[in-house]
Structures are given as structure tokens and as C-alpha cells.
Design a protein that fits this description.
Blueprint lengths: L6 E4 L5 H12 L3 E6 L2 H11 L5 E5 L5 H9 L10 E4 L15 H29 L2 E6 L12 H21 L4 E8 L6 H5 L4 H7 L8 H13 L8 E4 L4 E3 L2 E2 L3
Helix pairs in contact: 1-8, 3-4, 4-5
The structure holds 2-hydroxyethylsulfonic acid (8X3).
């Protein structure tokens, strides 16, 4: 048995849950391949974490399968044996009745949240199967559990993530690969700023009158899942803010 360090690849690492997960993993001694579209953000994170662990940067947009493959196939030999994949890249774009939906917004959500997750996973699963070992953590949403008004396509994209997590678990368990699906509720990140296309005032209202979850709250659970003993799969976790009981049911003071 070798004492190989654990390597995690995290998508969406330049902000929010992805970034918080990178920090939690670094504190736990997990070496990191941090991926995102914004090189400057990734470099700042690399600098912050490199005192703890080795950190490698990959810049790509998960929606571009060619770029995903080129980046992951091009990893140096010492980074190729990825133990943990955290699929955190994804976002909501727009919040409107389906008949008023913007096709570009729909494409963004389906392309990143569903296709992008598949592209990155495809590039990494073969190696995990070969090594008969690995752990995939998919960041879904409470939107994947319940559909809410004005959110049909975002909810659909997250329901797809739920199905992919289930399917991955069915197909990969026999290869020694664990699959964890995490469904966060209201987490205060730039999620709502992106959803409302930069309207910070509207975004702030989403988190008014209650204490929302932080990205660190979600990262704690992800770390717990990957640290669980090898015979334990944390399969599916839904995490609400304590004031929230369904996606659109929030007790505000
Ligand atoms: C984010 C949570 O409730 O806005 O995925 O859909 S919610």
C-alpha cells in the first residue's frame, strides 16, 4: 500500500460552493486541481492555498467538451490519478414563467448544469474505473427535489443532476466508485446575482429576513462525505437553511 496523497478536481472553484470546498479540502490536506473560467480568481485561490497543499489550475468552460478533454487529458502524470471529482460548476439564469423564458438562459443552464457535468465526468470516470476507486460529488439543488414557479428549466437541469447521480451510483458502485449527491437550499453566494443578471438589489432580497446557508456550510458536508470510511457512501444529502422548509417556503422575520 502506497501513501499516495488524495487528489480532488473541483469545477466551479473560482467562486461559491466550489471555492469553499477547495479551501476545506486544502485544510484537510487534499491536493487540488481547481477548475473554472476565470484564471485570475483561480490564481488568487492557488496562491492562498499553496501553503497547505499542491494546487494545479485548469481553465476551461465546462460547456466546451473539447476544452474539457484537452485540459484533463493534458494533466501532468502526477496529477492524472484523480481520487475525487466535485462537480460544482453550474448556475441559474433568469427566473420567469416558462412562456417568457429566454432561450439563451435555458441553453446556459442545460449546457453547464447538465452537459458540462457530463463532459467533465466522462473525462475522469474512465481513470477511476481503471483504478477501481474514486468518489464523485455532484452539486444538485433543492430545485432538483421540487419544482418551483418560474424556475422550470433550472429545476429541470437539477432534476437531471439527481438522475445522473442515481445512474452513476448504479453503474459505478461495482467499480469501487462512490457517488454523493448534495442538494443545497438557499446558499448566499453570487448565485442570485448571476440569476438576476447583475441586479444586486434583487439578489439581496432573496436572503433577506433569515440566515441563509453559507458556501462553507455545504463544503463541510462535502468534506464529511469524502472523509467517510471507504465502506460508507453518503448517497444523498438535502441541506436547507433552518428557516427554509421547501425551495420557496422560507420563514422570514
Ligand atoms: C439554489 C437553490 O432554491 O434557489 O439551487 O433553487 S434554489
Amino acid at each position: 500500500m502506497t501513501n499516495k496523497t488524495t487528489i480532488a478536481l473541483i469545477t466551479g472553484a473560482s467562486s461559491g460552493i466550489g471555492m469553499a470546498t477547495a479551501k476545506a479540502f486544502a485544510a484537510a490536506g487534499i491536493e487540488l486541481i481547481i477548475c473554472g473560467r476565470r484564471k485570475d480568481k483561480l490564481e488568487a485561490l492557488q496562491q492562498e492555498l499553496s501553503g497547505f497543499v499542491k494546487v494545479y489550475i485548469l481553465v476551461f468552460d465546462v460547456r466546451n467538451n473539447k476544452d474539457v478533454l484537452t485540459a484533463i487529458d493534458g494533466l501532468p502524470a502526477e496529477w492524472k490519478a484523480i481520487d475525487i471529482l466535485v462537480n460544482s460548476a453550474g448556475n441559474a439564469h433568469g427566473l420567469s414563467a416558462i412562456q417568457d423564458g429566454d432561450i439563451a438562459d435555458w441553453d446556459m443552464m442545460i449546457d453547464a448544469n447538465v452537459q458540462g457535468l457530463l463532459y467533465v465526468s466522462k473525462a475522469i470516470m474512465a481513470g477511476m474505473v481503471e483504478r477501481q476507486s474514486g468518489h464523485i460529488v455532484n452539486i444538485s439543488s433543492v430545485a432538483g427535489k421540487y419544482t418551483y414557479a418560474n424556475g422550470a428549466v433550472y429545476c429541470a437541469s437539477k432534476k437531471a443532476v439527481e438522475a445522473i447521480s442515481e445512474g452513476m451510483r448504479l453503474d459505478l458502485t461495482q467499480h469501487g466508485i462512490r457517488v454523493t449527491n448534495i442538494a443545497p437550499g438557499a446558499v448566499e453566494t453570487d448565485f442570485s446575482v448571476v440569476r438576476f443578471k447583475g441586479d444586486k438589489e434583487r439578489a439581496a432580497k432573496v436572503y433577506e429576513g433569515f440566515t441563509p446557508l453559507t458556501p462553507e456550510d455545504i463544503a463541510d458536508t462535502i468534506l464529511y462525505a469524502v472523509k467517510a470510511p471507504k465502506h460508507v457512501t453518503i448517497a444523498d444529502v438535502t441541506i436547507y437553511a433552518s428557516a427554509q422548509s421547501a425551495p420557496s417556503t422560507i420563514y422570514r422575520k
